[in-house]
Amino acid sequence: MSKPVGFDQKVLLNHLDYTANQTKKHSRKEMYTVLDNYLRDDITGVKSRKNAITMLMKIWYRVDDELKPIRDEILEEFSQLTNEERLLVHWGLTIAAYPFFKDVSNEFGRLFQLQDEVSSKAINNRMKEAYGDRRRVEVATSAVLGSMKAWNIIQPVSKSIYTISEKIIITSSLIQSFFVQILLNVLDSDALHVDLIENHPLFFPFNCELNITELRERKSFSFYRQGVKDLVIERNPI
DNA sequence: GGCATGTACGAGAGTATATA
DNA sequence: TATATACTCTCGTACATGCC
Description:
Layout: H1 13-23, H2 28-39, H3 46-61, H4 68-77, H5 83-97, H6 99-114, E1 117-119, H7 120-131, H8 135-150, E2 154-156, E3 161-164, E4 168-169, H9 173-186, E5 191-193, H10 194-198, E6 206-207, H11 212-217, E7 221-226, E8 230-235
Parallel strand pairs: 4-6
Antiparallel strand pairs: 1-3, 2-3, 5-8, 7-8
The protein binds a DNA duplex through helix 3 and helix 8.
């Protein structure tokens, strides 16, 4: 039995922004109708539109129970967020919703730590090793790459070679808190070294130097030292 | 023409909801 | 509670397009 892929269509930022803006206003059933109307101009095929709606709902609406409190907190502030902060939020929720997207991101991040340019072929091969050698994996990988290009995360330097766009610096304590909670969730962990969080390949497009003082004030986490140098951040029980 | 890539469609399994 | 029905989600694959 091969691992499910799910993410098989390019997702645009304006679709994610719109979904986020509507999430607190409508019931689940209403959301399908609202999104269908909104996407009608961009996606003409009925089936493709339904597929896109499925993805948007999974990213923003049907989030893991553990992440709902921080998702709701983000939604309260969503209109005040900068485009860069919104991008990180979309990125984090997509990673949490789609393990395939997470694995592609992790592979990109790992390779970008070693080199300046990454070929889509290398990513494709790696995904086929993990998810099976099938056309669906090619379609999904291309959908993830297409989304990352559309979000201006990566830039093509030639036909199948990509370089990373300038890293986005994140300073807001709310967004940093979100960032840490997403990492703890997707890595299925209650505690992580601060150094590992700040340099994790999953968030390769972002530069997030944690503001420990402000994060301490948010009460969601506690900190302790492991040895002389290593600072560990731990999720507080709810 | 062959190949790669993006988009669309139909099928089927799984899940949620309505109704008796 | 059990069953029927509707809806959601994922998949394989067909088709269109562009490039070599």
